[in-house]
Specification:
By secondary structure, this protein is mostly beta strands. Helix content is about 0%, strand content about 45%. Strands 2, 29, 30, 31, 32 and 33 form a 6-stranded mixed β-sheet that branches. The two termini are about 75 Å apart.
Amino acid sequence: MPRARTRTRTTRFRLTAVAVALAATTAGTLAGPATAATAPPAGAGEAARQGAADVPFPFTGGYLTAGPTGFLGVRTDGVHVWMRYADGSGTTFPKSDGITYRGATGADVVVASEGTRHTVHDMAGGGAPVVIDVPYTLHEVNGSTLVMVDPATKELHLVSRAPGGEVVDRTVTGMPAGVPWTFYGSPPGTVAVETSAPDFDFRISLVDVATATTVETYNTGWHSTFTQVTPDHVLWEPRVGQTRIVDRKTKQGETLPYRAQIVLGGDWLAITGADLVVDGVRYPNKPMVLKSLKDGRKIPLLDLANRGTPVGDGTLLLAGGTFAQGQGLFRLSLDASGTPVATMIADGQRPLGLVVERANVPSVYRFDGTDSRVTWQTSDADLGVSLDLTHVATGRTVSLWSYYDTFITWDGYLDQVIGAYNGAYTWKMTARPASGVGPAAVKTGTTTVDRGTAPRDFNDNARADALVRDSSGNLSAYDISQLLAMGNSPDCHEEGCPPVVRDPKPDVLGTGWNTYTLTAATNDDVVGRDRDGVLWLHRSERQKLLPRTKVGGGWQVYDKLVGGSDLNGDGRGDLLATDRSGVLWFYASTGDATAPFKPRKKIGGGWGVYNLLTAPGNIAGATGGDLLARDTSGTLWLYLGKGDGTFTARRKIGGGWQKYTHVIPGGINRNGVADLFAVGPSGSAFYRARNSTTHPFEPAHPLPLRADSTRFRTFF
């Protein structure tokens, strides 16, 4: 059987979340009556405000209940205060862990409870506080009557003090079987009580305060977070976002597909909710729309609101806001023509629309371990933030999001998991309120990426690239990270892993490369031998290749060109070539585009046994760039570089490499040595270098990329 409980409804101006800010929220059970010392002396705690009564006064707390002359509020420091509409003055109540406060819906009454003593304050008429001491649990206040439950018998009692001073204790009759579950604030005269039977079937009973008699009971089936009683209707919430309205005389009812309550003398329906649709008309955000029960007129009043509290004079008090006025406490009433209007009476001093007051984006990104967080300051902390960065030169973008954190960190990748290019970027920060109310707030600016350079970096993002020639002669640069993203990372098993990129978009460096029969890439440049045996050099410069310059003729004697590694320790990428007799030659780079290579040096013969060579750089930690060679049986051999353009005796890596048509450098890893990328018609693999001469590579990480005769024709 569910345990009886009580709650205190608090409506707050600060709309950090609509359900908290505007809806009645549950607080702890009131612990008991207050002592006589609870009542503040006349004039104590008064903070009078000068000015016209129709000017909103500042109040940034929340409200519990409202009466004709004022409302019971809770300041942000937890102090309860009675605020008067007329001049904005407030009477504060002592703050104590042993004292709790509760107001009466539609009445100017505040009850302070401490233990079994309850002190009733008439905030409109003044006079001495009335103290009532009874061994019951207080659940609701109706006018000056305490609605209480005997914890021993679970009986419902109405307790008050007669004009003569004696305590009047009346037991409510006619209540259905079950445990009192929830009490709903109503204007003086009627109390709505929800009970639950042993079968958890919920009912709402209406208690007439004058006779202490249950006059009506409605089966609701489910617990309702809202109940309203008017002279003609009873309303409750059968499901979240719905309202059941029943005629008290005919008992006929209907279920409305939105949250609503009857207001302003029973002639209007106040409708609230997210993205309201009323009679086919959509109202965005979470507004309040009034619909006439007489002629069907619909009048939007507030941009954000929830159900309100009857004041007792026919008006309604509610927390809400407009984009023009901001957040605050509003009074819903009729103007002289009988049209509903919402007037701000207390200013919450917060804008309704989200405002980005400051966006802290680094002026330069280096991705070198320094703090690259993006932070912000907004008018509301309950929000989602996106950051879009666009590389000015290429138009490539990345979109970053923050839903739970208060910052965004850029990991150095653009969309398609390509490393961010050096150069200028524009950024756009978009903050969206979590409540969904109001437009997004936007800030823009610029930043720069300066991450330096790396060997074989042809698209200016300090990451090694794989150069690919297709059957049409287009030459493209694929960031190695793009190729790795074509398969699932073996190191990522949680949320937040980089997305799998099935069709990476490369940077196109040039066209017409079908004129070359052999190609090779050094650290910074690309060379190609044409059909006449002439070697041409293409210098690399920020995501493009410069017009070619002629190196010289006679290169038709070679059947292999290998570049990309510094073999003599001067920091420049050198070139290797094997002639048709099997002799390996070394061409040291000069760094001069007009004469890019020194005269060749003979390394040695016998290299005709190999059908594939690659010079990825330092693989095993030796002094110079290393060389890999695959023989006709598919065995891969390692030649450690000595740093002078020559190599040590070969070391066997292993067999099975005949399945690959291309083996190319894969960039420098965190161990400072060069990885390997192998491509074949049946699939590809990434080999991470271990910095070991005996076991230079970790096991292969398979990738779905396959060499073909059209798009991925040649890799180097």
